[in-house]
Specification:
The protein is mainly α. It has a domain of 71 residues: Tetratricopeptide repeat domain (Serine Threonine Protein Phosphatase 5, Tetratricopeptide repeat, Alpha Horseshoe), CATH 1.25.40.10. It is 80% helix and 0% strand. It contains 26 helices and no strands. The N and C termini lie far apart (97 Å). The model has no long low-confidence stretch (mean pLDDT 96).
């Protein structure tokens, strides 16, 4: 017949093999024999926690503390269980008690930092992480979490230093490599970002997120074939995830492979019928192929999903404008400006549509507002100069076209239109000089 010590060791062996239900039975038998066997309560509590039975785990940790009230690990484990239950107040109290008993308990400091973050207490989380790495300089996860916080604060170089520290402790820490890549990407160092994501892929070849991260950098850098290859691998790993299809469609569209882009977006919509980005990218691919009616219908669906989607209204406005539906284009641009009144780009587009509709004063008002928002908006000056030319107000036309040239010295169309305005004003010398400049600029571009 087994005594409680033998039964306890059998329970531990079962626990190590992840035979949790049988381990619970064994630890319970131990406690039936000896109700003060604190290690059995502690071990059974850990098994209950692994099974997600948080209340039962807490009851066993309570028993440990009843017999051994200065057991810091029991307070720590109970804090973890309370945290998983959502009882943050009690979890914080238990972490505090564990740290009162063991002030350099690095794991308790790390877990309390995570809880502080969930509660929005960033400064307190940083304090705990600073203490955690001081208590245990080999706690790689603490460096990684501190790096993540610092990155969120815009302290990207400090974040990279933390990821480097984590990798000195654990060179195979995939999260550290991945987060380091994110930081380099934010700093604009695409080469280092790609290297970091590549390291994640080397260590974890089935990490789809690493492929999508590296693909994003390739896409931004114009390396479309590499981006497509990485998105394709992410799709192979997770064929039922819509996002890689949407992103791969962007790369295909940049290569003007619109049929492939359309197919990817359609698959994304099939997988996620309410995926707004899939509809937006599908609309863009259809428009790129010249299927503007189909594109407009797709943008209609996007607007149905999100009536405040600026991009959908803007893209639909562009498509309507290309179809000659200037009033519909004006309406779409107006909707964008109701959402964001300070979008200078859209003001310029609405100004163009208003000009085509013959509402020149409305166009001038839009360009004036665009200039007020951004005094360096050369396009707004140029377009307003064209409207003044249409109105035969050549003095104002010259003034605006001159400003456009000051902002963009190689704007050959501005020189060309200013030459015409000078000619109308009778300044043949200035007109001739501008036309010579046009020839010079065109020759340089040839």
């Amino acid at each position: 017949m087994f005594d409680e010590i033998d039964l306890f060791h059998r329970g531990v062996a079962l626990q190590e093999k992840n035979e949790h239900e049988r381990a619970v039975e064994m630890f319970t038998r131990v406690l039936d024999i000896n109700s003060r066997y604190t290690e059995a309560y502690y071990s059974r509590g850990n098994v209950f926690e692994a099974l997600g039975h948080h209340d039962k785990a807490i009851a066993d940790y309570n028993a440990v503390l009843r017999y051994s009230p200065n057991e810091a690990v029991a307070y720590y484990n109970r804090a973890v269980a309370y945290g998983k239950k959502g009882d943050r107040k009690q979890a914080m109290a238990d972490y505090a008690e564990a740290l009162r008993l063991e002030p350099k308990y690095a794991l308790a400091l790390f877990n309390r930092a995570q809880l502080h973050l969930k509660m929005g207490n960033t400064d307190a989380a940083l304090d705990d992480l600073n203490a955690a790495v001081a208590a245990n300089p080999k706690e790689a996860d603490a460096y990684v979490l501190r790096g993540l916080i610092r990155a969120g604060q815009g302290r990207l170089k400090d974040a990279i230093a933390d990821y480097d520290a984590a990798l000195r402790v654990d060179p195979k820490h995939c999260e550290a490599h991945g987060n380091r890549g994110n930081a380099f990407e934010s700093l604009g160092d695409k080469a280092k970002a790609v290297a970091c994501y590549g390291e994640v892929i080397r260590l974890a070849p089935k990490d789809a997120k690493a492929y999508t991260n590296r693909a994003r950098v390739h896409l931004d850098a114009g390396r479309f074939d590499q981006a497509i290859a990485d998105y394709t691998e992410a799709i192979r790993l997770h064929p039922k995830e819509a996002r890689p299809y949407v992103n791969r469609s962007l790369a295909y569209s940049r290569q003007r492979h619109f049929d492939k882009a359309i197919a990817d977006c359609q698959e994304a919509v099939r997988l996620e019928p309410r995926n707004l980005d899939a509809y937006l990218c599908l609309g863009a691919a259809l428009a790129g192929k010249g299927l503007r009616e189909e594109a407009i219908a797709t943008y209609d669906k996007a607007i149905g999903l999100d009536p405040a989607c600026k991009r959908a209204y803007y893209n639909r406005g562009v498509a309507n404008g290309l179809l000659g539906r200037v009033e519909a284009a004006v309406a779409d641009y107006t909707k964008v400006l109701e959402i964001d009144p300070n979008d200078g780009k859209v003001l310029c587009h609405r100004g163009v549509a208003a000009t085509k509709a013959g509402r020149l004063d409305d166009a001038i008002a839009d360009y004036a507002k665009a200039i007020q928002i951004d005094p360096k908006n050369a396009k707004a000056y140029y377009n307003r100069g064209l409207v003044y030319r249409i109105q035969n107000d050549n003095v104002r036309a010259v003034a605006d076209l001159t400003e456009a040239i000051r902002l963009e010295p190689d704007h050959h169309l501005a020189y060309q239109n200013r030459a015409m305005a000078y000619d109308k004003l009778g300044d043949r010398s200035a007109a001739k000089k501008d036309l010579l400049k046009v020839k010079e600029l065109r020759a340089a571009r040839a």
